[in-house]
């Protein structure tokens, strides 16, 4: 029996469902909380997976007053709600199209106003550290974020950043965050980018490319001590310089997207997931 969280699942000796861990090296007891979102286990493994090919259309509202109409002013925070999970998104630029649309491939991050420097940032919904996709360096076990994305026209991507940043107020410019580590696709080139203590962004060409119409899986892993590992399509990248998050810092996974003058077209998020390693 296959599982999207491991190689296989089985009924354990105690008649509890068991599944392989991510590395496929041992069995562990698991509890399926729902079909779309969360896996937990008796040994502390926690993973959240959002599959946008199966989620249908979300309910859309403001995040500040759920149930209200989504707004499109720069910096506004809106809410996407599917059965079993939700996401918030920050408006970048000024939007007349105020919410991303769904396609047969996934959630189209490029479907707001297709204007240079307009876009959105997809983030978790909770503000509680250590729960629902928030992690504390030095307190949380090792954790990760993974996202699978298809981009129609890579030259139209000013910023497509996938990784972790400090849990802080949203910024219009990704370089203005105080701390973070992510992979960025910019005009077809893939870079690692890091910020520590509000210093300048360190951007490193990974020598990997992203071509028009291609789908890639980005994965950022963070050890319990804050050491970051970057992966693309399952391959560990060696070009990025060493980076360690500051102890006690609360971080969260995010996707930051801005259009360039040559519009990116569809930027489709197929799934994303995060949790403990």
Describe this structure in words.
- By secondary structure, the chain is mostly beta strands.
- It is built from no helices and 22 strands.
- The N terminus is likely disordered.
- β16 and β17 form a beta hairpin.
- It has 2 domains: 43 residues, no CATH class; 172 residues, Jelly Rolls.
- It is globular, with a radius of gyration of 18 Å.
- The strands form 2 sheets. Strands 1, 2, 3, 4, 5, 9, 10, 13, 18, 19, 20 and 22 form a 12-stranded antiparallel β-sheet that branches. Strands 6, 7, 8, 11, 12, 14, 15, 16, 17 and 21 form a 10-stranded antiparallel β-sheet that branches.
Summarize the structure.
The protein has two domains: 9-51, no CATH class; 105-276, Jelly Rolls (Sandwich), CATH 2.60.120.200. The protein is built from no helices and 22 strands.
